[in-house]
Amino acid sequence: SHATSYRAWLQYTFITSTTYREQVMSLLKEMECLNGSDISESIEQEWTFAIRKMIGFQPAVVPEVKGNGLRIVYVDSMEKEAFHIKNEDGIQILAGGEAGALYAVFTLLRHIQRQGDLHSLNMKEKPANPLRIINHWDNMDGSVERGYAGESMFYRDDSFRENIVRWKDYARLLASVGINAVSINNVNVHKVESYLITERYLKDVARVADIFRAYGIRLLLSINYASPMEVGGLTHADPLEEDVAAFWKQAFDDVYQAIPDFLGVVVKADSENRPGPFTYGRTHAEGANMLADAIAPHNGIVIWRCFVYDCHQDWRDRTTDRARAAYDHFMPLDGAFKDNVILQIKNGPMDFQVREPVSPLIGALKQTNVIVEFQLAQEYLGQQRHAVYLLPQWKEILNFDTGHEGEGTFVKDIASGKTYNPTHSGIAAVGNLGDDYNWTGHTLAQVNLYGYGRLTWDPTLNEDDILSEWSDLTFGQEEHIQQLLEAILLPSWLTYERYTSPLGIGWMINPGHHYGPNIDGYEYDAWGTYHFADRNGLGVDRTVETGTGYTSQYAEQNAKIYNDPNTCPEELLLFFHHMPYNYELTSGKTIIQHIYDTHFEGVKGVESMVANWEALEGKIDDKRFSDVLERLKHQLSHAIEWRDIINTYFYRKSGIKDIHQRKIYE
Ligand code: GCW
After folding, report:
1. The domain 132-459 belongs to what CATH superfamily?
2. CA gap 165, 155 in Å, rounded
3. Which ligand 1 atom sits nearest the alpha carbon of residue 375?
4. H or E stretch including 135?
5. Separation of 308 CA from ligand 1 center, angstroms?
6. Residues 541, 578: contact at Cβ < 8 Å?
7. Which of 65, 296, 306, 595 has the smallest count of CB within 10 Å of its CB?
8. Ligand 1 pocket check: which of 186, 322, 379 to mutate, most ligand atoms within 8 Å of Cβ?
9. Mean pLDDT in residue range 450-455
């Protein structure tokens, strides 16, 4: 009974329409075989397996398709990952390379599962983003940092697991939505993981790479900046010293010896107490460029994360602003990084909160390769116990106009490379997977992985269409099911926002594990995440005149809008301004009344999620039905906890009553 959950959106459910099946049988009874490479084998396997399951016959793989059948033709003039599926003298896939053909096959299978028309086929696609990455935060002891779906699927007890089938199924899931790169260890690289780039583990890493390679996915490893000392036995890790450079050169030679198409490394340096070039008085550029030079002979890349801020702040100090940090650190280095270095920037300036403005670094860096980082793991969004469909949030971010090259400088075009034409660019996301039977803990969290892939492939897809695709593929093509899932998931991000922290303020969660409400949990802590609520109001003053000046990091137009509470988008009002409780919003409500109202509404929202899910009983398999129901019920009780704690807290602070006299505990 775990199998349906495990198959996620690759169910390949038997199609009951005889007419449609007969059509597929006649048009696609054979497939012309390919050249026998790893990817070719995957293509043939995926195609024949899925057709057999959906249609009930096994298409023959033949040297030459004579009549009707599927033919794959490689076209030199097309880009490697691009394809064109058409019905002209039979169904043909034109592709720029094997990866393109693989993506085409998955696209066609999706089309067939949804009983799409096969006569007028004409699908011409190529990915918008060159790099479409999942970052795992897996540790070799088997734990996953911010993992909410069981243990690591890669490691246990400081060794690689014998998990070939699962790795392959994972690769299939990823390739089916166009992901082309994966890093398999936590960016916080501890002692044991530092040895992943050495003989001790390279054979195992290569085994994973082999499996992924057959699905067009390239491997990345996170590295420890102090490895020259911890692994190499040197006394320092100064990037400008020759012995350090030599250590890395040798390390990369070894890695490429084992994995010739290794993509590169991910580095978290001088961030949250991790080692980095600062120790030696070197800049991020000096630190990254040394690695870039060492890996360049193998055409590797260095992905350097920008999550750098003062994590030993003093809450008494109102001038230091964590939100400013990434821009302050990296903006002066624009243009100083080598061509094979890419800066990976979190979508917001803080840390994956339910609502943040877009990071001001995105768009501002014009001469530097950039990757935008999202988080599929719902660290601050209910940890995959709450159902939150993340696509609406990502769409908003990707469609944000940074204004750096005039009107219309959208985040999605910066990520895709369209705006500045960099050597490398794309999108990465922290994964939400583990070894749970359903991959993502919450079965509905599968939609975020699916949607992430689809959106990085084509950021112009909208969240509704992605959701209906996913729902058809995952739960069957029934309108009623789809409508209920839409009712549950489309508003779920806003619902989550309503019952948690208001108007862009963020945080208000329990320190450490980050689950559940704790309004003052971080208020007097060192992490720079404050709300500054007092008896008159709350919010962080980030204006130029009286605050931290953060607003000035945006292009002029945005800076102006954010700097003024009257023009600041209200959902971000408290991110940028400290405002009185009785300030009137455009809705005519005061801030305090808005807080009360949204918290009552948020709980109502979850109530209807539960009711809508209950209406699915008997329409989907019992296992998925009851597992999700259990989580939704937990979400409801937890939303009530959030509502009551937030409402009581602000009632006590402000002394202002709810005008509707609902129950607020005193
Ligand atoms: O979101 C924070 C997490 C840390 C994480 C860090 C990062 C891997 O709380 O657990 O460390 O971000 O992105 O590096």
Report:
1. Glycosidases (3.20.20.80)
2. 14
3. 1
4. strand 131-135
5. 11
6. yes
7. 296
8. 379
9. 98
Q: Which of 117, 253, 261, 272 is catalytic?
A: 272
Ligand 1 midpoint to CA 353 (Å): 12
In words, the CATH class of domain 3-125 is alpha beta
Give residue 379 CA to ligand 1 midpoint distance, Å: 9
Per-residue pLDDT, 522:
97
Residues having CB closer than 6 A to ligand 1 are 137, 145-146, 187-188, 268, 307, 351-352, 379
Distance 347 CA to ligand 1 centre (A): 13
Fill in the amino acid letter for 665: Y
Tokens of 136: 């795992």
CB 253 within 8 A of CB 235: no
Average pLDDT of the residues in 20-35: 94
Q: Atom 11 in ligand 1: which residue has the minimum CA distance?
A: 188
Given the structure tokens 């070799």, which residue do they identify? 140
Q: Please say if 351 is a catalytic residue.
A: yes
> β-pairing, 83-87 with 341-346?
unpaired
Distance CA 275, CA 334 (A): 22
pLDDT above 90: residue 66: no
Please state the domain extents for the chain.
3-125, 132-459
- Ligand 1 atom nearest to 187, measured from its CA: 8
Residue type, position 350, single letter: M
Residue 1 pLDDT greater than 80, yes or no: no
Tell me the CA distances in angstroms from 557 to 359, 365, 401, 418, 575, one per residue in order: 15, 17, 10, 21, 18
Which of 351, 436, 472, 627 is flagged as catalytic? 351
Residue nearest to atom 12 of ligand 1 (CA): 351
Q: DSSP character for 656?
A: P
Q: In Å, how far are 253, 310, 428, 515 from 314, measured between CA atoms?
A: 44, 10, 32, 24
DSSP 2: -
Q: pLDDT for 512-556, tens place per residue?
A: 999 999 999 999 999 999 999 999 999 999 999 999 999 999 999
Calpha distance 359→489 (Å, rounded):
26
Mutate which of 188, 222, 350 to test ligand 1's pocket (most atoms within 8 Å of Cβ)?
Answer: 188
Q: Whose CA is nearest to atom 7 of ligand 1?
A: 307
Cα 511–Cα 500–Cα 432 angle in degrees, nearest 5: 65
pLDDT band at 376 (very low <50, low <70, confident <90, very high): very high
* pLDDT tens string 171-226: 999 999 999 999 999 999 999 999 999 999 999 999 999 999 999 999 999 999 99
Q: What is the pLDDT of residues 76-98, one digit of tens each?
A: 999 999 999 999 989 999 999 99
What's the CA-to-centroid distance between 183 and ligand 1, angstroms? 15
The answer to whether 656 and 589 have CB atoms below 8 angstroms apart is: no
**Which one of 351, 356, 372 would you pick to mutate in the ligand 1 pocket, going by the greatest count of ligand atoms within 8 A of its CB?**
351
DSSP assignments along 259-273, one per residue: -TT--EEEE--SSTT
- What is the maximum span of the chain, computed from C-alpha positions, in angstroms? 81
Residues 297-333: tens digit of each pLDDT: 999 999 999 999 999 999 999 999 999 999 999 999 9
Task: Give distance in angstroms: CA of 271 to centre of ligand 1.
Answer: 9
Q: Which of 563, 608, 623, 459 is nearest to 126 (CA)?
A: 459
Q: Tokens 């400081």 map to which residue?
A: 158
pLDDT higher than 80, residue 360: yes
**What predicted TM-score, i.e. pTM, was given to this entire model?**
0.98
Catalytic option among 30, 32, 373, 379: 379
Q: How far is CA 603 from CA 202, 217, 499, in A?
A: 50, 41, 6
